[in-house]
Amino acid sequence: MAAPDFSFDIVSRADLMEVKNAIDQAQKELANRYDFRGGKSEILHEKNDITLIADDEFKMEQVKDIVFSKLIKRGVDARHIDWGKPEPATGLTLKMKLNLKQGIEQDKAKALVKQIKDKGLKVQAQIQGDEVRVSSKSKDDLQKAITYVKSLDLAYPVDFVNFR
Known about the structure:
The chain is α+β, with helices and mostly antiparallel strands. It contains four helices and nine strands. The protein is about 35% helix and about 25% strand. α1 packs across α2 (about 55-75). The longest helix is centred in the N-terminal third of the chain and has 17 residues, at about 15-30.
């Protein structure tokens, strides 16, 4: 009988519950701040898209700072956030899209698999959709792979899930 394979997945996901909590906190702060009273500043949140609306560029920067600080305090990695450009909106306001990056892009996943294979560990790494599955016959080799991936300076945050 063959020895069972152990595996884990390398993923890059923002915790959507923490994002929702951070946006709720930012909306409360925006509603309570005196300098935003009487203006049209607001924060809209739908799944992975967040839209910031403000009266002018200065207030847009203030709204952006509020949202960013709340996201960081809630443990959302800054590398998950893709800031858009401010664009004119209705009624002399500005709007800015903020997108949350979920998953590892295909070319970045290929580079990660290549780095793991070049390290010479006794593990197999393969791309599965927007995540990378690493498997081995030894749990110790998987631990070495996790340690190695944590030591890499990647342009995106990674988590390790589905240990089997």
